[in-house]
Design a protein that fits this description.
Mean pLDDT: 94
CATH superfamily of the largest domain: Glycogen Phosphorylase B
Largest sheet: 7 strands, parallel
Distance between the termini: 21 Å
Number of domains: 2
Helix content: 40-55%
Shape: elongated
Number of helices: 14
CATH topology of the largest domain: Rossmann fold
Structural class: alpha/beta
Radius of gyration: 21 Å
CATH architecture of the largest domain: 3-Layer(aba) Sandwich
Number of strands: 13
Strand order of the largest sheet: 3-2-1-4-5-6-7
Low-confidence stretches: none
């Protein structure tokens, strides 16, 4: 990293998932490198709480809707006070309001697109991407190609940077013994886990539907559902109605994700939509853990079916159960896939590489100044 810039990250979401985690991790790493990094977010948002805990300056901005005069005014104040060099926006409301403030103040804007959900072609939807940013960072090449092919956006301003893995936290030296002891997993086989916010598009219901078939073959199999979210009650009821409470442990939110992953025999991500390249899949692969993932969004960019893991159709509990049983019965082939996956992550998806690529984009938009990229 060269010139130490002043960066303003903006996020209108109040939730806490992969997108918000990536924002905060990047912000902290840039701050550790000597950058001045600020976070602008909404009151009562989890990113506000976690950013404050990390020691980053946090500005609370009420973003009621796009084109909110009060929010735009507040962003102009922050830009002036912090002498912001680059604004990095992440969601719709903040991209509109911080984007307009950036255009008024002449500060370059980078817009991240974290989800693989298609962007509509109405002028109001694409305006942010066309005119209120100087560069776009997508969380995978599939998202980049969709913006180019479906929305006719300029390829020269779009960069694909997948979420990187912090290999200091996620590596093969992490022990899962404490978790196995805490959750009574010592004699279980297999131990299958999903680590994801409990939202419908993450596909937890299909994983739960797969449990009875796996248990019919492996009665002591355990399934860990790690995370919290709006679907908690529905999923808990589904587990109870299927009579599989003994085999499924819903752990709620956990901070010790490396240790959780280390305790697993395999990780499943049964997403049905909106997935980019994921954060948990590269984390699991960096730790040498086998992965089963659905063929949606940017997941095939990481999982080469039969090479670095298993790809299955979405919304298919039979495919999930069959994949879990296959991996349990084919240990040698499964181990080889996990090692190939680990090699791919260490070569292409490290946190260090992600930060360096993002830093290059910041300096690129600065060099081009007010000129559209």
């Amino acid at each position: 990293m060269s010139k130490r810039l002043s960066i303003l990250h903006t996020e209108a979401s109040k939730g806490w998932g992969g997108q918000e985690i990536r924002i905060l991790q990047e912000a902290v790493r840039f701050a550790e490198s000597g950058y001045r990094v600020s976070i602008a977010c909404q009151k009562d948002s989890l990113i506000a709480k976690n950013a404050a805990t990390s020691g980053l300056p946090v500005y609370i901005v009420s973003m009621r809707f796009p084109l909110d005069p009060m929010a735009i005014t507040e962003f102009l104040h922050i830009i002036k006070k912090e002498k912001i060099d680059v604004i990095h926006t992440h969601s719709s409301k903040d991209s509109w309001n911080a984007g307009i403030a950036g255009r008024i103040s002449g500060v370059p804007i980078v817009r991240s697109r974290h989800l693989s959900t298609p962007v509509g072609n109405r002028w109001f939807t694409t305006f942010v991407y066309r005119y209120l940013c100087d560069a776009i960072i997508t969380s995978g090449t599939q998202i980049k190609e969709a913006l180019i092919n479906n929305n006719s956006l300029d390829p020269a301003k779009i960069y694909s940077i997948a979420a990187g893995v912090d290999t200091e936290r996620y590596n093969t030296n992490v022990s899962g013994d404490r978790i196995r002891d805490e959750l009574s997993l010592m004699e279980s086989m297999p131990v299958v886990g999903v680590v994801a916010i409990l939202r419908s598009w993450k596909g937890h219901k299909y994983l739960i539907e797969a449990v009875p078939k796996v248990v019919s073959v492996y009665p002591d199999a355990k399934f860990l559902i790690v995370g919290d979210g709006p679907k908690w009650d529905d999923l808990k009821k589904q587990v109870h109605d299927l009579g599989i409470d003994r085999n499924v442990n819903m752990t709620n939110f956990r901070n010790d994700i490396p240790e959780i992953i280390a305790a697993l025999d395999m990780l499943v991500l049964p997403s049905i939509a909106s997935e980019a390249t994921s954060q948990v899949i590269p984390q699991a692969l960096a730790m040498g853990k086998p992965v089963i993932a659905t063929n949606v969004g940017g997941l095939p960019e990481i999982i080469d079916d039969g090479v670095t893991g298993l790809l299955i159709p979405p919304r298919d509990h039979e495919a999930i159960s069959n994949a879990v049983i296959w991996m349990t019965q084919h240990r040698e082939e499964t181990y080889k896939m996990a090692m190939e996956g680990r090699k791919k992550i260490l070569e292409n998806y490290t946190f260090k590489k992600m930060v360096e690529q993002t830093d290059d984009i910041y300096h690129c938009v600065l060099k081009k100044g007010k000129k559209q990229v």
